Hints:
Blueprint: H1 2-19, E1 40-48, H2 51-64, E2 69-76, E3 79-85, E4 90-95, E5 108-116, H3 121-130, E6 135-138, E7 142-145, E8 156-160, H4 165-180, E9 189-199, H5 202-212, E10 222-224, E11 230-235, E12 240-248, H6 251-260, E13 264-268, E14 271-274, E15 284-287
Amino acid sequence: MDRIILSLFWLGIFANSLTGEIGISPSETGIQPEKSLFSRLHTLSIHIKDPAVHDSVFHFLKDKLQLPVYYPPMALGDRKYAGIFAGNLVLEPCGPYTQFNYKTDFKAIFFGLNFETDDSISSVVKVLDHLNMKFEIHGDEYIYLTDNEVSGENTFIGISNRKEKEKDHSKLDSLRSAMNSNLESDLGIEYVKEVQIGYPGNKNLERWKDLIYPSDLDKSKAWHVSNSLNIGFVLSKIKEVKGITFKVKSLEKAKMYAKENGLFGTEYNGAIAIDPKKSFGLSICFTE
């Protein structure tokens, strides 16, 4: 339930930002971080447009991709929410929403990047002020970035330092252990290896570099968020989360599973891609 409340919070403040109901004035002082603001990517939200599609996306992740449930489906008003654990982050199908000005039509899209920080929110505020990065703040646990060089169009960025995160991390560790010991998984997903982010131009990419400092991008324009997760940046017409790549135990076994279950799309450079028609338009790949 705590996680559901957090999800609703992120969605609420983004909706409010569109009408200008929340704001913060930059302070006169700031600091340059000695370590990255982000300790981990906790949740990648998946927005849907049709309530019926929400149920289908949830079961696709749970049944077809054989991923464990972080929290079960629930409805609040006209919207539906659910959480699926993907080995090192949570995938959260949610929606539909009428207040977002999406730049593309879709059944489902990867949308929100919700990061955790080990720093206090007040410390994060100082860093963002120093960077002249636009943001909104709520209490002492949550920040939402409104800087139009990194947020907006088909993505947004949240930062949290929640009081209950130790309890949450214990739950994630338990789900991770269950995944690792699941010998019945024919697909064999271990974790999300890469999240691919589209950026329209160099100004957007430089803003991301400011945000993740002192971390940097490698030659392939990938940010190594952790030992298991990279965020790769590619040129795109809009700001968006383009897709994800899962690490699997055996690519050959995953390929066989995908073909047997009607999911197989293409194979290239040591990876296979799911047919987007079978994943509601979500770009999903597998690699070893």
